[in-house]
Amino acid sequence: MSYRNKNIAVLDIGSSKVCCMIVSKDENDISKVMGLGYKASSGIHSGIITDINLATGCISDAIRLAEKQSNISIKDGLTVSISSSKIFTKRIKSSVAI
């Protein structure tokens, strides 16, 4: 297993709370929760960000708490979950000439 796949970070953005979890996989591919951070949501209503500054604050706090508890810094990105009746997925294919 490569180091890149050893730690997984997830972020769940909800209307009541924002939760960040950092999980580490061992050599047998068994996952262990290393850190968990959560904060009450601010600036988020019904899955929509209504105040970017408040939302940024509670998201950052949840991530910092998980990093502090796990002693692992999130560097390779994280998976984000957010649900709302206003969110949809659209597939786009494009290319750029270099």
Which spans have pLDDT < 50 for at least 5 consecutive residues?
Answer: none
Largest sheet: 4 strands, mixed
Biggest sheet strand line-up: 3-2-1-6
Tell me, what's the shape?
globular
> What is the straight-line distance between the termini?
34 Å
Q: Work out the helicity level.
A: 10-25%
Structural class: alpha+beta
The helix count comes to 1
Number of strands: 6
Order of helices and strands: EEEEEHE
Average pLDDT, to the nearest integer?
Answer: 87
Strand percent estimate: 25-35%
Radius of gyration: 16 Å
Give an account of the 3D structure:
It is a single chain. This protein is an alpha+beta fold and 98 residues long. It has one helix at 52-70, and strands spanning 7-13, 17-25, 31-40, 44-45, 48-49, 79-82. A 4-stranded mixed sheet has the order 3-2-1-6. A two-stranded antiparallel sheet has the order 4-5. Strand 1 (7-13) and strand 2 (17-25) form a beta hairpin. The longest helix has 19 residues, at 52-70. It is globular, with a radius of gyration of 16 Å.
Features:
single chain, 98 residues, two-stranded antiparallel ribbon, alpha+beta, globular
Structure summary:
With 98 residues, the protein is an alpha+beta fold.
How are the SSEs ordered, and which strands pair?
Blueprint: E1 7-13, E2 17-25, E3 31-40, E4 44-45, E5 48-49, H1 52-70, E6 79-82
Parallel strand pairs: 1-6
Antiparallel strand pairs: 1-2, 2-3, 4-5
